Amino acid sequence: MRLTQLLALAAVILGVTAAPQVIPSGLTLQRRADPDALIPLRFSLAQSNLDKLETFVLDVADPRSPNYGKHWSPAQVRETFRPSQGAIDTVNGWLTDHAGIHADKIKLSPNGDILHLDVTIAEAESLLQAEYNVYSDEDGNVRVGCHDGYILPEHVSKHVDLVWPTVHFGGPRSFSRRSTSIISSSRFGRESGAPRLPIDNIAAFAESGCDESVTLDCLRALYNFDFTPVSGDMNTVGVAEFGASVYKPSDLDLFFNSFRSDQVGHTPTLISVEGGDPTESGDVDEATLDIELMMGLLGSGQNLSLYQIGKTVAVTPDPMDELLAALDGSYCSLSPVGSEGITDCGNKPRTNVISISYHLHPDINDPAISPVVQRQCTEIGKLALTGITFIASSGDGGVAYSQFEECLQPDGSLVAFGNGSFVSQLPASCPYITAVGATSVVPGASTDQAEESTTIFPSGGGFSNNFPRPAWQNYAVQNYLDNFAPSYASSVFNRSGRAYPDVSANGWPIVIAQNGGFIQSGGTSASAPIFASLIAAVNDARLATGKSPVGFINPALYSGAFADAFNDVKVGSNPACGTQGFPAAPGWDPVSGLGTPNFEKLKNAFLALP
User: Fold this and answer.
1) What are phi and psi of 608, to 5 degrees?
2) Reduced to 3 states, what is the DSSP secondary structure of residue 503?
3) Which phi and psi angles does 418 have, rounded to 5°?
4) Is 340 known to be catalytic?
5) Which residues form a coiled coil (predicted)?
6) Which of 258, 417, 500, 512 has the largest count of CB atoms under 10 Å?
């Protein structure tokens, strides 16, 4: 019998199996792993009270709740969701009593949510009844995993969310007995569906209409945004940059000299995560776009923090884990092999708003992906409970995944620029994140007129395959499905999934300075930091009156109290996967969400809440 058949049979007799998976796209099976090589094996324990997380979050985020705005302390969150002692003891006991692992080799993470042990491949295979292999990517970097699945006893599996690395492949590794090094790689990427067009005469462009070039003044006019900070140093806002996304101070000054003179000489405050360094060489597109827009809109009276996430060094699938670990200590383990492991564990300052302009995973039902993204979304929800607003770009691929417009095939694979079922993207489709789509000024129109969804690239939107539709968006989404949604087959998209984007903001053609010159740029990667800047300004107004930051904003945005806070976008669509995608429509739609913001009305609606 094949190993997969044996595993399935053993699962019936002994416990629960992690089902065999296809080898992830971009990886090639190279060989069986060296049985004497060491790997850091981690058991992510099932947390307590996760079934109550949504209830807890809504208690502080629903405008109708008497506890609106009464956010939890980090300590309260840790204690509420900490895995039970029974779960820890059960997994520990199995490892020591039945698997023969010496107790000294097992370490519990600071948050009490991960058991970590350094074992040989042979020990891991015996422990998990698995077959470990080495896989390589196109760049020659290698990973270790067991795509044919693994087994946990039933009494253990109910206390374990994930085992790393197994079918959930870790970071690519240079693999040997003596030393281990990790090289940054994953499916994550910045949104880059919009072109980058050079500008020869910035003075002429700055004087053109906002349908031809979008400057800071255009954004202020579009969204009724006139902001002067009044809360002093109480307010905080951050932007996250992953991998080798960096910026040049000279580009910031070039931009500010033309459009925001009070910011000349200023740079964001660095919060380095896992050694992230924005002065290293790298790609200046995303970080430059985010920072210039946020610092330009907010001005010198509001500091911007930069979460610079270094090249991932942990056995994790993407840098989102490093960011979450730095904020709340999740994903952290002790005494890993060599220099591996997450070192920034709950030791970085938290800002009230965090803007993210990257896609991290396709939102598909895949046992190798779903547990990862569900765990990440849970951690985002727990941080939202403490009062953090997470804002993310909805993507530049329309109803497909990423700017490469990857669509789902019947065999579970993704095909770029082809036909297939729609694929949402993460983190945008996590319900605890506010997802932002992209719009443009209609050609020949003024800033007083409603925008349209972008046409130069399809703005991302759709329905999650991993997260059900939350109650707070039922009415708005069902109205769209009943009255405006195309009659696609049921297999094309998940009508009961969390729908996104939630809102939208301009994404083309935005003027920025980059590499010593000016360009037209954009994408939903611009829309997210624009909207994040407005929410930061809302927080400033609330803090000045003695109120809390807004925290998780989605239940409020979809409520009747905010019905007038958005400019409805009724024109456009987001084609991909051989279809026209979804059309924009009156009210919420999966292209522009609730629409673009009117800052004064948005601010006043939030100021009216406790």
Assistant:
1) -75, -15
2) strand
3) -130, -165
4) no
5) none
6) 500
Return the minimum-mean-pLDDT range out of 204-218, 282-296, 474-488.
204-218
Per residue in 248-269, pLDDT (tens digit) is: 999 999 999 999 999 999 999 9
CA separation for the pair 457, 396 (Å, rounded): 6
Query: What's phi and psi for 139, nearest 5 deg?
Result: -90, 0
Q: Please give the CATH superfamily to which domain 189-269+291-307+351-374+381-607 belongs.
A: Peptidase S8/S53 domain (3.40.50.200)
Is residue 241 part of the annotated active site? The answer reads no
Model confidence at 179: pLDDT above 50: no
Query: Three-state SS for 255?
Result: helix
Q: Is 193 marked within a binding site?
A: no
Ligand-binding site membership of 313 (annotated):
no
CB-CB neighbours of 232 under 10 Å: 10
Q: Which of 191, 211, 251, 286 is catalytic?
A: 286
Which residues does residue 260 pair with via DSSP β-bridges, in sequence order? none
Single out the catalytic residue among 525, 527, 533, 573.
525
pLDDT surpassing 70 at residue 4:
no
- What is the rounded CA–CA span in Å between residue 516 and residue 433? 34
Nearest to 243 by CA among 283, 279, 270, 271: 283
User: For strand 566-567 and strand 596-597, is the pairing parallel, antiparallel, or unpaired?
Assistant: antiparallel
Catalytic residue from among 62, 290, 318, 540:
290
Place of tokens 């009490």: 112
Tokens representing residue 241 in the block: 């940059």
Distances (CA, A) of 567 to 223, 445, 454, 505, 588: 9, 15, 15, 10, 11
Euclidean distance between CA atoms 186 and 193, whole angstroms: 19
SS (H, E, C) 52-63: HHHHHHHHHHCC
Per the model's pLDDT, the better-predicted residue between 173 and 132 turns out to be 132
Is 125 assigned a catalytic role?
Answer: no
Q: Across the beta sheet with 517-521, what order do the strands follow?
A: 197-199, 517-521, 510-514
- Residue 97's pLDDT is 85
Q: Where are the alpha helices (DSSP H) in 260-360?
A: 285-298, 320-328
Q: Which two tokens stand for residue 326?
A: 């730095």
Q: In this structure, what token pair is assigned to residue 494?
A: 């998940």
pLDDT 10s digits, 411-423: 888 999 999 999 9
Q: Which of 235, 300, 236, 311 is nearest to 272 (CA)?
A: 311
Delimit the domains of the chain by residue range: 3-47+82-182, 189-269+291-307+351-374+381-607
16 in a known ligand binding site: no
Residue 200, marked binder: no
Q: End-to-end distance of the chain based on CA atoms, in angstroms? A: 64
| Those residues with Cβ within 8 angstroms of residue 315's Cβ, 6 or more apart along the chain or in another chain | 39, 40, 42, 164, 165, 170, 171, 173, 182, 336, 340, 341
- φ and ψ of 205, to 5 deg: -65, -40
pTM: 0.90
- Residue 212 carries which DSSP code? T
Q: Comparing 116-120, 312-316, 576-580, which segment has the lowest mean pLDDT?
A: 312-316
Are the beta carbons of 518 and 193 closer than 8 angstroms? Answer: no
Question: Is residue 208 very low, low, confident or very high in pLDDT (cuts 50, 70, 90)?
Answer: confident
Task: Identify the bridge partners of residue 354 per DSSP, sorted by sequence position.
Answer: 238, 390
